Amino acid sequence: MERSSIPAPALLLVGAEVTLGEATILPAVDLRLEQGEVLALMGPSGSGKTTLLDCVVGLRTPTAGSVEVLGAGYGSMSSRERACLRRRSIGIIEQNPRLLPELDVAENVALVLVFDGMPRRRALALAREALTVVGLDGAGALRPENLSGGEAQRAALARALLSDRIELLVADEPTAALDEENVRLMTELIVGTARDRDISVLLATHDTTVAERCDRIQRMRQADDRSRASWA
Ligand SMILES: Nc1ncnc2c1ncn2[C@@H]1O[C@H](COP(=O)(O)OP(=O)(O)OP(=O)(O)O)[C@@H](O)[C@H]1O
């Protein structure tokens, strides 16, 4: 039989649902994200966006349905295997940059590669390069407390995408705490980097100006609506 030439999607969720007791906190979602695609996930507060992202990064197991990430089905993987895939191939940014206050900015960014066994000097050199890409050249020696909110979030982006093995970026309201100018900067950096490095992006946002810069928008329904999330 001829093999299909259609590339595997970066993400494939089929009827992925999360229930807690009687409550449905993520109504069944079908979602397909192509490789290199930038998808905005929109929906009212409490509609399950964070829960869905947790399922995508393997931190939560859906109570029904399936999740396939970068060609690997989570259903057949141990939590250790999921953690390994997450560390190697998935960049994660949240609304709060969560930089460690006891490390300087470059050390914060470099940490993931040091954990992976890279010599510290090499990891720090790469971290400084990554900081330059996000407009923070020279900020590596600062403590996180000396960065503005927008700068800290850009450092978090540099950290999330530091490894050249990252294929998928998962971002949970990464611009929610930023002013208009920083929203624009951060959005352009995310979309631009995704284009340059062929990284797929799943980005939850309430901000239509951010969503409109993405390739496509998928809207969530309220968590108590048991029908499936629809394509926009
Ligand atoms: N551990 C939990 N126990 C009970 N309910 C939970 C738990 N985690 C999430 N929920 C509920 O599940 C629903 C979906 O939450 P989730 O955080 O995924 O929504 P969201 O769309 O990301 O919201 P927001 O836009 O406000 O961040 C909410 O009603 C929330 O209260």
TrEMBL record:
Pfam families in alphabetical order: ABC_tran
All residue ranges annotated as the ABC transporter domain in the record: 11-232
Alphabetized UniProt keyword annotations: ATP-binding, Nucleotide-binding
UniProt KW Transport keyword: no
InterPro entries per UniProt: AAA+_ATPase (IPR003593), ABC_transporter-like_ATP-bd (IPR003439), ABC_transporter-like_CS (IPR017871), ABC_transpr_LolD-like (IPR015854), P-loop_NTPase (IPR027417)
GO cellular-component term (any): plasma membrane
GO terms, molecular function: ATP binding; ATP hydrolysis activity; transmembrane transporter activity
Protein name: ATP-binding cassette domain-containing protein
Lineage: Bacteria, Bacillati, Actinomycetota, Actinomycetes, Micrococcales
